[in-house]
């Protein structure tokens, strides 16, 4: 017979997950308005109670509130945990724990003892840890704190009575690897009340072996030195899968050393999950002999809100109770309930299958990466090693669930269209930048893969694939790994070409000095950075910077409007230089010379356009003053010539009827180019403005590239990609607007409707898309477009 309360708990959990998952049930209008009013700002508790459905909808809105406000954001970059049926069992465990806690004491004691015993037995058998006990804790570091306290109680017999006073006689020493989690040793000392001098960090191998494995010989030397100094070596923290690289320490040798000096050996790391598999490497198998090890089955199996577990061996239950590893409170034993339910739901085969699936994903990616050029995997990131150690490392790597890879220009034999001589200085920083960009791109393009970027001390920036920590959560499949490799095949040629062309870009920029300045920015993942320098003379520093910012902002806008695949960006947040234009990744068919020429020409055109506008403003102001004086003078002459009577409204009309007077006052036209007033005699005599040319008749720069070819591409290079990526089609050609490539040698052919001398030239304002050099500007100013003459006649 099923308990009605238990059935109701399961029913409520299913309903809550359904509402939080899709939010299909909508509350009434009054509840909805009250819900939204509460999410804006914190407020007082509602006077009337609310039902469960309303509260769950409020939680649903709080979870998805940011997504509702930013609908345009790419949701693919925010992978959400895949909560499957096993996840529901873990969540059910938290609900049942609250229900079980209200049972009578005797029934609660029996139930919690059974749950704790079952879970401990299952975990010890799955992970090959015989005769072990288990401590369940929320913080994955808390188990290490408890076993260290147990080691203190075991080594200092009077610690239970004398406390920390006994530590002053022989200071305890805790050893940790340099590859341990950052801050782990400091947290341990803070929780135990030990000084930081009790923490000893053991360096990793520097000559032979993995650079992420603890140096056993140096550890032995440090232990002997501490013993001779009157200190007590207490505990050693080893790794079965370092946090960054996933490497395993020599656990068998470390265990022998710890037994020799009476040191407690604690092991942690992601590679401990492989103990559940049928085939386990000898390095990881050494963890089964350790005094304690911390497991995180929640992350390995995709179980939300499941505690970490520390398995340990100790024969004295009193010391375990004093260290906090066991508790006499039955309620605390309920921490194991979610894991107890989840392990039963998955079964032994299901647990092994999930771990095997993650390990298979790693091996599949490692095999695929072997054939990708310019990509180095974890086996190529090590220094010189002996033959025996090499064989062991090959065995570990082939079975390691963590894959590290990075882009390396050294693997590229030659390159197309560029040189790498200039990358000797700061080459490592540039490679780190490119690898960081590659990892971020892969994480964004294939979010289900779970790849991330790690910073290693010697290898630099690498991309890490650790499916044991992400596959069960994100639901990673083999198709996702294949997609990662496919994206790599697209990104690597672009990165290699960009690396090769960086020096060419630097040299071309120096060739255009002083108008262009190359900015050495090693943290920018792209071709490089450049700044257009204003050629104005005599301006103060603040005025010059303002003018420089204005020109470079306009230049960036012009470059972004060009028909090209190259990405242009403004100053990133991490860059100290200001008013720069950053050029992104390029392909190997890019003409760097044409690219830099275009940047220089566009910048010069923008600067001269701004200078022309300033001059025109001054001319217009002076012209207006002159026009006012001439119009005033013309009115006075008209008054003297016609007399006062003709100015009267009625009398003037009668006089003009009997005796018409032909006015000698001529119209005026304002020449914007010259800033002067000219007569309109020619206009009224020919009934047309001289040199008038409509804006539609102004020719644009002719294109010097094939149809469908984007800017900055060398002819004959990358024709296939150009045909696929081209956005120029018949519709664009019929629109009458042509794309063009700016070059210093290109001069648009000018045609005017009527010839006109320079003295009577009328200015016009060039369209925003029409570019040219100073000679073109001078030629264009000799034309007279329609709509820019003003009849300044006083009539």
TrEMBL record:
Residues 782-795 have a biased composition (Basic and acidic residues). The keyword Lipid metabolism does not apply. Residues 427-498 form the PDXDC1/PDXD2 second domain. GO terms for molecular function: carboxy-lyase activity; pyridoxal phosphate binding. Residues 736-756 have a biased composition (Polar residues). The keyword Nuclease does not apply. It comes from the Eukaryota. GO terms for biological process: carboxylic acid metabolic process. Residues 509-611 form the PDXDC1-like third domain. Its cofactor is pyridoxal 5'-phosphate. Residues 23-44, 706-795 are annotated as: Disordered. Keywords: Decarboxylase, Lyase, Pyridoxal phosphate. Belongs to the group II decarboxylase family. This is Pyridoxal-dependent decarboxylase domain-containing protein 1.
């Amino acid at each position: 017979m099923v308990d009605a309360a238990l059935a109701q708990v399961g029913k409520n959990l299913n309903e809550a997950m359904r509402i939080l998952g899709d939010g299909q049930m909508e509350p009434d209008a009054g509840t909805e308005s009250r819900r939204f009013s509460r999410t804006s700002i914190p407020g007082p508790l509602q006077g009337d109670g609310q039902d469960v459905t309303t509260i769950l909808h409020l939680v649903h809105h709080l979870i998805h509130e940011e997504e509702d406000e930013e609908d345009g954001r790419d949701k693919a970059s925010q992978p959400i945990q895949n909560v499957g049926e096993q996840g529901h069992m873990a969540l059910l465990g938290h609900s049942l724990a609250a229900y079980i806690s209200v049972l009578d004491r005797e029934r609660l004691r029996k139930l919690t003892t059974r749950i704790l015993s079952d879970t401990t037995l299952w975990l010890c058998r799955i992970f090959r840890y015989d005769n072990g006990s288990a401590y369940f804790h929320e913080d994955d570091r808390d188990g290490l704190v408890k076993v260290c306290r147990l080691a203190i109680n075991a080594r200092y017999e009077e610690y239970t009575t004398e406390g920390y006073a006994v530590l002053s006689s022989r200071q305890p020493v805790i050893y940790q690897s340099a590859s341990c989690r950052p801050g782990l040793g400091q947290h341990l000392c803070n929780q135990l009340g030990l000084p930081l001098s009790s923490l000893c960090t053991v360096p990793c191998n520097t000559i032979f072996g993995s650079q992420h494995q603890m140096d056993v010989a140096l550890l032995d030397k440090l232990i002997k030195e501490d013993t001779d100094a009157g200190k007590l070596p207490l505990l050693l923290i080893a790794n079965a899968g370092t946090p960054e690289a996933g490497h395993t320490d020599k656990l068998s040798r470390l265990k022998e050393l710890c037994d020799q000096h009476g040191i407690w050996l604690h092991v942690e790391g992601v590679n401990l999950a492989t103990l559940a598999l049928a085939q386990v490497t000898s390095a990881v198998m050494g963890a089964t002999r350790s005094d304690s090890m911390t497991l995180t089955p929640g992350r390995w199996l995709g179980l939300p809100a499941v505690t970490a577990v520390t398995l340990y061996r100790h024969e004295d239950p009193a010391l375990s109770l004093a260290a906090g590893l066991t508790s006499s409170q039955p309620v605390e034993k309920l921490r194991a309930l979610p894991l107890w339910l989840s392990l039963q739901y998955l079964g032994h085969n299901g647990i092994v299958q999930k771990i095997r699936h993650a390990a298979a994903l790693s091996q599949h990616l490692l095999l695929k990466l072997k054939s990708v050029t310019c990509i180095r995997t974890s086996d190529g990131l090590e220094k010189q090693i002996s033959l025996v150690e090499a064989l062991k490392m090959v065995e570990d790597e082939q079975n390691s669930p963590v894959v590290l890879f990075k882009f390396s220009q050294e693997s590229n034999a030659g390159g197309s269209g560029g040189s790498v001589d200039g990358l000797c200085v700061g080459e490592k920083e540039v490679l780190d930048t490119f690898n960081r960009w590659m990892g971020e791109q892969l994480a964004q393009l294939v979010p289900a893969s779970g790849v991330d970027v790690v910073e290693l001390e010697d290898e630099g920036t690498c991309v890490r694939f650790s499916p044991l920590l992400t596959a069960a959560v994100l639901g990673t499949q083999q198709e996702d790994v294949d997609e990662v490799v496919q994206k790599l095949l697209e990104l690597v040629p672009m990165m290699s070409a960009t690396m090769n062309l960086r020096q060419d870009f630097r040299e071309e920029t120096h060739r255009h000095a002083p108008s262009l300045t190359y900015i050495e920015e090693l943290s920018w993942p792209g071709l490089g950075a450049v700044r257009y320098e204003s050629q104005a003379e005599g301006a103060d520093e603040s005025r010059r910077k303002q003018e420089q910012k204005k020109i470079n902002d306009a230049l960036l806008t012009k470059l972004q409007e060009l028909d090209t695949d190259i990405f242009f960006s403004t100053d990133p947040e991490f860059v100290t230089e200001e008013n720069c234009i950053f050029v992104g990744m390029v392909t190997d068919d890019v003409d760097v010379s044409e690219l830099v020429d275009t940047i220089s020409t566009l910048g010069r055109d923008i600067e001269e356009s701004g200078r022309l506008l300033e001059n025109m403003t001054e001319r217009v102001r002076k012209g207006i003053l002159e026009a006012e004086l001439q119009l005033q003078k013309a009115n006075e002459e008209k008054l003297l010539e016609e007399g006062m009577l003709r100015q009267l409204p009625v009398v003037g009309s009668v006089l003009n009827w009997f005796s018409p007077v032909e006015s000698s006052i001529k119209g005026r036209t304002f020449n914007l180019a010259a800033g002067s007033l000219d007569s309109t005699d020619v206009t009224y005599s020919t009934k047309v403005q001289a040199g008038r040319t409509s804006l539609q008749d102004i020719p644009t720069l002719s294109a010097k590239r094939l149809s469908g070819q984007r800017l900055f591409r060398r002819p004959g290079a990358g024709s296939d990609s150009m045909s696929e990526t081209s956005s120029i089609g018949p519709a664009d050609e019929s629109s009458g607007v042509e794309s063009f490539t700016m070059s210093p040698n290109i001069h648009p052919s000018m045609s005017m409707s009527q010839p006109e001398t320079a003295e009577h030239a009328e200015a016009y304002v060039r369209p925003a898309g029409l570019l040219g050099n100073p000679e073109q500007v001078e030629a264009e100013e000799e034309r007279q477009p329609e709509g820019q003459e003003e009849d300044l006649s006083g009539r």
